From TrEMBL:
PANTHER family, alphabetized: DUF1684 DOMAIN-CONTAINING PROTEIN
InterPro entries the UniProt entry points to: DUF1684
Protein's recorded name: DUF1684 domain-containing protein
Source domain of life: Bacteria
One Pfam family hit: DUF1684
Length: 292
């Protein structure tokens, strides 16, 4: 009898230790993922160094550090006059002033086409970097400053405690040719291709989220009852790409992130569609950052 009790005790201890090791491994995985997320935000292509978003007028747009320009760059990191950016019939060209010290890579720029492009053409002057984005029928200069004060002051992002229960299985209900209406913070509406709807359960209740992107990498813009209280008011992002053995997706809310607009007023973030606002508090992932 004593041997039987002893054996059962060791068996239970083994289960507990195995469970602990599993939890620890998952927690370390999320911590490593979040570390890379923070490194990405701080990188040259990250969101923390955004320093301006300037919508172009058709024709000539002068730019530089002087207030006399149409586009005013940070005075501490720019010569007073750098040149002109010309928008004409959907093409954007930069013409640099003499001795402006604008570079494309290591090559000095006199005149260069910034848009259209196969990949963004990034030009630079001192600590500044900029390129062209298009939103709807509008074009803008997106400016980065590698010496941005926001970047210097960044101390990280608060998150909820890691909890593997927020990694849920979700079935993808595929919908051929489906479009999802997405509005961004500028008010522009776009119709995005959707592979379908993710269906999942939280505490026994079914929820649904429309995804955009591709079946290999589903992108979900969602809101929940923590918004404006503990998390960013306009919702958060999460991706689903890892499939379970039964073909369903793992939807891991521990990887829910703030949109770029949480870090900068110069981003143009998509907002959750009405059907993606969940009537439940998702207490996982990144918490609120800043007041943008």
């Amino acid at each position: 009898m004593k041997k039987s009790i002893f054996a059962v005790s060791w068996l239970l201890l083994g289960v507990v230790l195995f469970s602990f090791r599993g939890d620890a491994a998952y927690e370390n995985q999320i911590k490593e993922w979040h570390k890379k997320r923070v490194e990405g935000l701080k990188a040259e292509e990250g969101w923390l160094n955004l320093a301006g978003l300037f919508w172009l007028e058709e024709g000539v747009n002068t730019f530089g550090g002087s207030s006399e320009n149409d586009i005013i760059f940070p005075q501490d990191h720019s010569k007073p006059a750098l040149g002109k950016i010309i928008l004409q019939n959907g093409q954007v060209t930069l013409e640099a002033d003499k001795d402006a010290e604008i570079f494309n890579g290591t090559e000095p720029v006199e005149k260069i086409t910034l848009f259209p492009y196969q990949k963004p053409v990034v030009v630079k002057h001192q600590s500044l970097r900029w390129f062209i984005i298009k939103r709807g029928d509008k074009y803008a200069v997106r400016l980065r400053d590698l010496e941005s004060q926001t970047l210097k002051d960044f101390k990280g992002i608060h998150t909820y405690p890691i909890n593997e229960n927020w990694k849920v299985k979700a079935k993808l209900e595929k919908t051929e040719g489906k479009k999802v209406a997405i509005t961004d913070i500028t008010g522009r509406l776009s119709q995005e291709d959707s592979p379908g709807t993710l269906v999942f359960n939280i505490k026994g209740k079914e929820y649904r989220l429309d995804a955009v992107g591709t079946e290999k990498n589903l992108f979900i813009i969602f809101g929940d009852e923590t918004n404006k209280k503990e998390t960013y008011g306009a919702g958060r992002f999460v991706y689903a790409s890892e499939k379970a053995e039964d073909g369903s997706y793992w939807l891991d809310f521990n990887k829910a992130t703030n949109p770029p607009c949480a870090f900068s007023p110069y981003a143009t973030c998509p907002l959750p569609p009405k059907q993606n606002k969940l009537a439940v508090a998702i207490t996982a992932g990144e918490k609120r950052f800043g007041d943008h």
